[in-house]
Each structure stands twice: as structure tokens, then as C-alpha cells.
From TrEMBL:
It is a multi-pass membrane protein. Keywords: Cell membrane, Membrane, Transmembrane, Transmembrane helix. The chain crosses the membrane at residues 6-30, 59-81, 88-106, 131-153, 179-203, 209-226, 235-257, 269-286. It comes from Acidovorax bellezanensis. This is ABC transporter permease. It holds the Pfam family BPD_transp_2. It is found in: Cell membrane. PANTHER family: ABC TRANSPORTER PERMEASE PROTEIN YPHD-RELATED-RELATED, BRANCHED-CHAIN AMINO ACID TRANSPORT SYSTEM, PERMEASE PROTEIN. InterPro entries: ABC_transp_permease.
Length: 296
């Protein structure tokens, strides 16, 4: 793998670490199977690309993308909490609806950002190549998002969200409004995903209607890989594991696709993903079996 490919893998891994953090909130903290991610990721990208191409400041465009992602998660939570639609089905309904909404927003299948200013062109240090500057800028953004998430989930409201996911009945008995916590948690989750989509289009030079396909699988893969590498119940280490998992996942994907002796091509991406997730799921079981066999 070349140095350029290595930095590219880190760049994409850092972007999808934001998606993985969002998936971690819904799947691990709220125990909410959320497929909205496949729609909110391109939604954030579509809104950001359209606004930037129309002359909006990239900071405001990125903030708007985060907000609309949060609204998508809020809608999924509302369907579940208020209309009593099953969580998985509610997320599927929103994901399907967002496909048409994204096409409406973009006015077509894609929006290019070839010559438009982005966050990365604004923040890139003079004299530093863009392929070096982008991972550094993304690392700072991800670090800020991780620390903000660690802080939020140590507050009273954040703990209430975690309690809702752990045992909703017990949380209600303690006076927690579990419905409101689901709405808030889903909004934060998909807000992070929308942010990831906004950053993705700014690094890739435009948005595309198909960019959300398989996003939930990538997010889950990052969470599973990270948890197998750094298992912990403390939120500060759990979020760190998710970020590391996303970067490691993209690194192995890039390594596999750039290894000529293996013979893998770009169309084998989903196959490599499936194998990596299967390995990550099996490793904890093997560790548990080996620990039982060790003499005490």
C-alpha cells in the first residue's frame, strides 16, 4: 500500500468514525435498530453540497447538514414513540422516504463540488498538500465530537438516555421520560451521521444519491471491530474503541483492495466487509473459549 493510499484510508476511516459514533448511540446505548443511517448520511451530504454550490459558507452548510440529519433521526424516533410503529420498521420507512427527499434536494442524482470552497480548502495550511491536511483536520473534528459525546453522556440527560436503553421500565420507574430520551438520542445519533455525510462530500468532490448504500453496515462493522479490540463499558473508552474500529476497518479494506496477490477489486468491497465483520464477531468467542481452557 502506498503512502497516498494509507492517508486516504485514514481520511475515510475518520469520516466514518462519526457515522460509527452515531450507530453506537442507537444500537448500543438506546438498543434501537436504526436503518435511518442509510438515508441520513446522503441527506447530510446532499444538503451540504447544494448549499456550498449555491455560495453558502461551508461552516454553515456543514452545520445545516448536521441539523437535517438530526431531524431525520427525530422523525424515526417520533414514528416509534408517538405512532407506536416498531423501531426497525420506523427506520426503514424514513430511510425509504429519504431517498426521494435527497433526489428532490439535489435536483438530480448528484451535485459536483469540484471548484467550490470547502471546510478543507479554508482550513488547509499553506504549503501542506491536501491529502495530508485533510486527515489532520478530520482528526481534530473527530476528537472534538468524541469529547463532546463523552461529556454529554456523563450528564444527567445523557445518563437518562443510557438508562432508557439499558432498562426502559426501570428508567420510567425512576421518573425518566423514556420517549423524550429516545427522540433526543436518535437526533444526536443521526446528527453525527449527517455531519459525516457533509464531510464526506467535501472530501470526495460532490454528493451522489448512491453514497448512502451500505452505510449502516460500515457503521456496525466499525463498532464491532472496535469493541473486539478494546472492550470496555466506560463511555470514554467505548467511544475511543469505535473511532479506532472505523479507522482500522478502512485500513484493512484499503490493504485488501490494494494487495495484488489477493486479486480483490473495488467490486469486492462488500465481500471484504462481510468477512471482516464475521471475523470480528468470532474473535470475542474464541477469546472466551481460550480463557476457559487456561488452567487456574
Amino acid at each position: 500500500m502506498s503512502f497516498f493510499s494509507f492517508l486516504g484510508a485514514i481520511e475515510i476511516g475518520l469520516i466514518f468514525s462519526l457515522v460509527a459514533l452515531g450507530v453506537f448511540i442507537s444500537f448500543r446505548l438506546l438498543r434501537f435498530p436504526d436503518l435511518t443511517v442509510d438515508g441520513s448520511f446522503p441527506l447530510g451530504g446532499a444538503v451540504c453540497a447544494v448549499l456550498i454550490s449555491s455560495g453558502t459558507n461551508p461552516w454553515l452548510a456543514t452545520l445545516a447538514a448536521t441539523a437535517v440529519g438530526a431531524c431525520a433521526g427525530l422523525l424515526t424516533g417520533w414514528l416509534n414513540v408517538k405512532l407506536k410503529i416498531m423501531d426497525l420498521l420506523a427506520s426503514i420507512l424514513v430511510m425509504i422516504a429519504l431517498y426521494s427527499i435527497n433526489l428532490r434536494i439535489m435536483g438530480g442524482p448528484n451535485v459536483p463540488l469540484i471548484n467550490d470552497a470547502t471546510l478543507f480548502t479554508m482550513l488547509q495550511p499553506e504549503g501542506m498538500p491536501d491529502y495530508v491536511a485533510r486527515p489532520l483536520i478530520l482528526a481534530v473534528i473527530v476528537l472534538v465530537a468524541k469529547l463532546a459525546m463523552d461529556w454529554f453522556f456523563s450528564t444527567e440527560r445523557g445518563l437518562a438516555i443510557r438508562a432508557t436503553g439499558s432498562n426502559a421500565r426501570m428508567a420510567r420507574a425512576q421518573g425518566v421520560n423514556t420517549g423524550a430520551m429516545i427522540l433526543l438520542g436518535m437526533a444526536v445519533s443521526n446528527g453525527l451521521v449527517g455531519l459525516g455525510g457533509a464531510l464526506f462530500v467535501q472530501t470526495q468532490g460532490g454528493s451522489d444519491i448512491s453514497m448512502g448504500i451500505g452505510t449502516i453496515v460500515i457503521g456496525l462493522a466499525a463498532v464491532i471491530v472496535g469493541e473486539s479490540m478494546l472492550p470496555s463499558r466506560r463511555i470514554i473508552y467505548a467511544t475511543l474503541a469505535v473511532v479506532i474500529g472505523a479507522v482500522v476497518y478502512r485500513f484493512f479494506i484499503a490493504a485488501a483492495l490494494n494487495s495484488d496477490f489477493i486479486g480483490l477489486k473495488a467490486q469486492d468491497l462488500n465481500l471484504v466487509t462481510a468477512v471482516l465483520v464475521a471475523v470480528a464477531l468470532v474473535i470475542p468467542q474464541l477469546k472466551h473459549k481460550l480463557s476457559k481452557r487456561k488452567p487456574r
